[in-house]
Design a protein that fits this description.
Elements lengths: L18 E7 L6 H10 L5 H14 L1 E8 H17 L5 E6 L1
Length: about 100
């Protein structure tokens, strides 16, 4: 039986997934302590880093909390919204392409 060899060329372009920044926005009602708690609980920041980011939110109006893939960033935004709502705060988290 004849031997047939086939060479298959496959160029697989595996691209890195797009990344998204998750931002917290300043408001006049959410407490500083709550923002620090959110940064530690949702974004897994240590206390020092959480306080630094919280001060950026306070002074600059918004700050980046982390950079994630789309689904993870979307989940973080949702978690912040739900925790803020259940605690009576209007804290806003958004995401934008990095």
């Amino acid at each position: 039986m004849p031997r047939i060899e086939e060479e298959i060329e496959a160029d697989l372009a595996i691209a890195e997934p797009e990344k998204y920044k998750v931002l917290l926005h300043n408001d006049d009602y959410t407490t500083i302590d709550f923002v620090v708690d959110i940064l530690m609980a949702v974004f897994h920041k240590n206390e020092t880093e959480a306080e630094r980011i919280m001060m950026d939110v306070h002074k600059k109006g918004r700050a980046v909390c982390g950079v994630y893939t789309y689904e993870i960033a979307q989940t973080k935004v949702y978690q912040v919204k739900e925790l803020a709502k259940s605690n009576g705060f209007p804290l806003l988290a958004t995401m934008e392409e990095a």
